[in-house]
């Protein structure tokens, strides 16, 4: 118990020190912003108390014609029409575009469910009126009987109650180390909830800071503080990082000095720590929204939209009050009358209260007295009107918001000139819109970090699309395989990956709508088919009334559901889609079979091609062989002829067979033709040379070679000895 009390004492001392430090730093800016806010929002604040009393004593009017409020409302409402969107984008290789789409749906759903537009509008109003606003993200349980948490975007209407780290210089507050939020609560309420010791009387010097005895209220401070702990970061050989040193030091590839960070939340009164715990993510959940920020060395000056136009507004009020006074005095008739003419006549004390005025036409000596004369009206009114117009023009020039930018009719200027004036007004105050975009981007980063920390178990969440339609998706669902949105076997795993925020910027909503209408009108003139393909979308684009939904639904009925994307929940459409899927599967099977047949035919065609190629190579080889054989046969032919020339019949034949003629050379060498011989004799005279024809073994017995030789007669070799050669023996 003693340790806790000492710990609370340390917390109280540190947090109160942070509060004092931040209050001292922001005091001048907050005071200036408070004066600007009251000047433009409250009545009777554009005249100083001294001037007001002096004029009232003199019977002079003190009119307040608040031109600045109109300019402020013009900018605030333009920002409301131009709603910016927070969009998540994947950064590293682990982040998935499909998960980024789910995060965008969660961001929009959080904005809608928590009424984030109220928080954004309150921040913009504070920025315009007093140069500083703030937006808060609160994480709480869905219900009292649930452990599921979800974030909400909350408005901070009193921006002067937020004190940021004075060392923070980023416009989105991302470099701040702490932030303090103070609120005044009923003393009895705090005592009932946290005990009487939470509202004990404080020291006298703290009465104005932490308690108000007259109102019976106490100041409750919430402090979010980032606490950093030095750590050593280890890089393992498998590429992973960890703050825990592995037991096996061989797994360490590298290490460096780093830190781990947590965000701690304290809730305390001036005398007691009411609550304290760790926030879900190490980021401050309160984001600042700045207006016009100017740095002079280390001194920061924050100005509202109307700060430098306050003096022209005061002059405008003065001259308009003088104008009213002059007009009022001009309606009163003033007379110049002598004492003798008005003596003893009461009506001349207030001539405007009488319809008939009497005067003494003679004096005591009966001498005529001149009648009273009506004084001419005051002629200084023209100068006052010019001065009032000059003050009004000064307001327009300082704010750079001409009448065209305020929607006033300008007859002597072209449409292009009016558009340029409106654009100039938007550019002159774009720094405020840009600062808001930076703050909203930081809101998106904090929300994504919360999603990745809170949504760690399988669940089904509602997301909202850009068109405002909602759907339910599975998050962190265990599944097998790979595909879109699946990381490490988990579908829509929000716990991994790094995502950044991008803001969509552009022209105001009204300008975009008018430009889109003009563009669509021109496009329809050249491409009228668009009206037939998407009539519902065209009606939606041109909508200016309240019957849009009925018109669109009536147009969608005769359209193909596949075009309108509304047939997903229709049972008939689902049946048709299943039928289409079955047909697609059948077509895919048929396609596979056809491709298999085509592959078989391709194989057959390839085999035929190889056969033909082999035939051609064989024919070429046979031709080469025959050329060599032809030369050898020519040599053999010459040798045979030489032998035949020297051959003579034996003498025994001549003696014993004198009665019979000797056999001819043809009879001696004639042999029956051999089947399958390579050469066939053309007549009987060549039969005697048959035995000199090379056999199959000399040239080859391949049937393809024989067929090739038979097809080409020019390749035939020695055909036998001609009759002339035989007779030439």
TrEMBL record:
Q: Which domain of life is it from?
A: Bacteria
- Keyword annotations for this protein? Coiled coil
User: Bias regions of kind Low complexity — which residues?
Assistant: 665-674
What InterPro entries does the entry give? P22_portal
Pfam families reported in the protein's UniProt record = P22_portal
List each coiled-coil range. Answer: 577-608
Annotated region Disordered: the residues are 652-729
Q: What is this protein called?
A: Portal protein p19
């Amino acid at each position: 118990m003693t340790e806790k009390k000492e710990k609370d004492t340390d917390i109280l001392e540190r947090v109160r020190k942070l509060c004092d430090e931040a209050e001292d730093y922001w005091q001048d800016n907050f005071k200036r912003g408070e004066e600007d806010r009251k000047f433009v929002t409250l009545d009777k604040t554009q005249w100083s108390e001294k001037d007001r009393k002096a004029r009232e004593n003199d019977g002079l009017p003190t009119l307040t014609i608040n031109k600045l409020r109109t300019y402020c409302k013009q900018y605030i409402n333009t920002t409301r029409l131009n709603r910016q969107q927070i969009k998540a984008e994947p950064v590293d290789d682990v982040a998935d575009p499909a998960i980024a789409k789910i995060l965008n749906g969660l961001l929009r759903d959080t904005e809608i469910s928590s009424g984030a537009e109220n928080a954004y509008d309150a921040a913009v109003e504070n920025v315009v009126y007093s140069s500083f606003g703030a937006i808060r993200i609160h994480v709480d349980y869905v219900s009292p009987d649930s452990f599921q948490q979800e974030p909400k975007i909350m408005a901070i209407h009193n921006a002067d109650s937020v004190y940021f780290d004075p060392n923070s210089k980023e416009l989105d507050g991302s470099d701040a180390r702490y932030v303090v939020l103070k609120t005044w609560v009923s003393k009895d309420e705090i005592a009932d909830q946290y005990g009487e010791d939470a509202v004990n009387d404080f020291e006298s010097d703290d009465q104005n800071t932490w308690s108000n005895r007259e109102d019976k209220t106490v100041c409750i401070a919430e402090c979010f503080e980032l606490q950093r702990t030095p750590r050593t970061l280890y890089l393992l050989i498998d590429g992973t990082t960890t703050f825990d040193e592995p037991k096996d030091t061989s797994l360490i590839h590298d290490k460096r000095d780093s830190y781990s960070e947590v965000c701690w939340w304290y809730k305390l009164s001036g005398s007691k720590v009411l609550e304290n715990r760790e926030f879900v993510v190490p980021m401050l959940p309160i984001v600042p929204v700045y207006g016009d920020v100017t740095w002079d060395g280390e001194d920061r000056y924050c100005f509202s939209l109307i700060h430098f136009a306050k003096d022209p507004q005061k002059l405008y009020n003065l001259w308009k009050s003088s104008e009213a006074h002059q007009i009022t005095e001009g309606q009163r008739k003033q007379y110049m009358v002598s004492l003798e003419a008005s003596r003893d006549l009461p009506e001349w004390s207030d001539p405007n209260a009488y319809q008939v005025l009497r005067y003494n036409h003679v004096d005591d000596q009966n001498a005529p007295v001149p009648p009273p004369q009506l004084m001419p009206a005051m002629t200084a009114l023209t100068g006052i009107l010019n001065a009032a117009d000059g003050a009004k023009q000064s307001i327009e020039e300082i704010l750079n918001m001409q009448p065209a930018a305020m929607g006033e009719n300008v007859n002597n200027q072209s449409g292009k000139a009016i558009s340029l004036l409106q654009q100039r007004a938007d550019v002159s105050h774009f720094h405020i819109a840009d600062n808001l975009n930076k703050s909203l981007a930081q809101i998106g980063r904090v929300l994504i970090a919360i999603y990745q920390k809170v949504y760690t178990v399988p669940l089904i969440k509602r997301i909202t699309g850009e068109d405002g339609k909602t759907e339910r998706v599975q998050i962190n669902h265990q599944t097998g395989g790979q595909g879109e949105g699946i990381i490490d076997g988990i579908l829509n795993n929000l716990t991994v990956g790094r995502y950044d925020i991008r803001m969509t910027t552009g022209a105001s909503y009204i300008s975009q709508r008018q430009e889109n209408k003009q563009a669509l009108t021109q496009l329809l003139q050249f491409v009228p088919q668009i009206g037939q393909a998407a009539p519902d979308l065209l009606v939606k684009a041109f909508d200016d009334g309240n019957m849009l939904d009925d018109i669109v639904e009536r147009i969608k009925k005769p359209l193909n559901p596949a075009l309108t994307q509304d047939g997903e929940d229709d049972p008939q459409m689902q049946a048709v889609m299943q039928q289409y899927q079955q047909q697609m599967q059948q077509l895919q099977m048929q396609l596979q079979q056809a491709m298999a047949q085509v592959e078989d035919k391709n194989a057959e065609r390839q085999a035929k091609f190889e056969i033909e190629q082999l035939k051609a190579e064989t024919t070429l080889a046979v031709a080469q062989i025959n050329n060599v054989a032809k030369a050898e046969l020519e040599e053999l032919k010459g040798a045979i002829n030489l032998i035949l020339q020297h051959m003579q019949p034996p003498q025994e034949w001549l003696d014993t067979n004198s009665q019979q003629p000797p056999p001819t050379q043809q009879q001696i060498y004639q042999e029956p033709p051999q089947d399958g011989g390579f050469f066939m004799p053309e007549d009987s005279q060549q039969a005697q040379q048959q035995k000199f024809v090379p056999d199959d073994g000399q040239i080859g017995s391949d049937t393809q070679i024989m067929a090739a030789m038979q097809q080409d007669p020019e390749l035939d070799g020695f055909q036998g000895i001609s009759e002339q050669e035989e007779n030439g023996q």
